[in-house]
Write a structure and sequence with these properties.
Number of strands: 7
Radius of gyration: 21 Å
Structural class: alpha/beta
CATH architecture of the largest domain: 3-Layer(aba) Sandwich
Strand content: 15-25%
Mean pLDDT: 89
Helix content: 40-55%
Number of domains: 2
Largest sheet: 5 strands, mixed
Strand order of the largest sheet: 1-4-5-6-7
CATH topology of the largest domain: Trna Endonuclease, Chain: A, domain 1
Low-confidence stretches: 1-7
Length: 229
């Protein structure tokens, strides 16, 4: 593959469906007392989630060195661990990690995140899954303890201390990984990925402000509080 980044910009708010109004008022509607604001903010939330979900696909599309890499559909089975004991009663399940890198006799198991502030319970569960996957690899006899490492990648954060802080210090020492580091492993130009993902920001800003100003209650507040330009 060439080093050219395949364009796949950030998700657009205008394309999001948002909450189905027939299911009742959203938390945003209850917060503001306005159904239109609630629906618009639910579309924003859906877009944020979509942007995070598409990150793995963006990276998969731009991998330049697929040998030893497991992400998305690339060598997908190499990051799935079957018949792994995951609970006290002996039940076995399949554990999957977001990214696995097999190189130079070592394995890196990586949890991939778009943000950098996380729910405590969710982080604990993800670290547990990574640890279980690590034990599964070691139990095969092909790798020793020091040959398998787990990593928690916060893609848009370049400060490792902030990654630890955002994960409530629940991730092991030395496991924080920046998006730049991950891209280095995948043979991807990090800066170009960031630039490409920002390509929809102007459209998102324009759409959000335009839709917000269509709401009568918002227009009245703006008229009352903003001096004419």
């Amino acid at each position: 593959m060439s080093g050219q980044v395949i364009e796949s910009g950030m998700a657009r708010i205008r394309d999001a469906r948002g909450r189905d109004p027939s299911t009742g008022p959203s938390g945003y509607e209850r917060l503001f007392g306005n159904a239109q604001i609630g629906q618009l903010l639910s579309k924003v939330q859906a877009t944020v989630i979509s942007t995070g979900n598409e990150l793995e696909r963006v990276l998969e599309d731009n991998v330049t060195r697929p040998d030893g890499i497991s992400i998305g559909k690339i060598n997908a089975q190499k990051r799935k661990f079957k018949n792994v004991k995951t609970d006290a009663d002996g039940n076995k399940h399949t554990i999957g990690v977001d990214v696995a890198i097999y190189r130079d006799g070592k394995v890196k198991l990586i949890e991939l995140k778009d943000g950098d502030v996380f729910d405590t319970k969710k982080v604990a569960g993800e670290v547990q899954s990574l640890s279980i996957a690590k034990r599964s690899l070691i139990s095969t006899g092909k790798y020793k303890e020091d040959q398998v490492s787990i990593h928690f990648c916060s893609f848009n954060q370049e400060n490792k201390q902030q990654i630890y802080n955002g994960a409530k210090h629940l991730i092991p020492t030395g496991s924080a990984m920046t998006g730049r580091e991950l891209c280095g492993e995948l043979g991807i130009d990090y800066d170009r990925i960031i630039k490409d993902r920002r390509s929809q920001q102007p459209d998102n800003l324009d759409y959000f402000i335009t839709e917000l100003l269509k709401i009568q209650a918002v227009r009245e507040i703006v008229k009352k509080n903003v001096a004419p330009i």
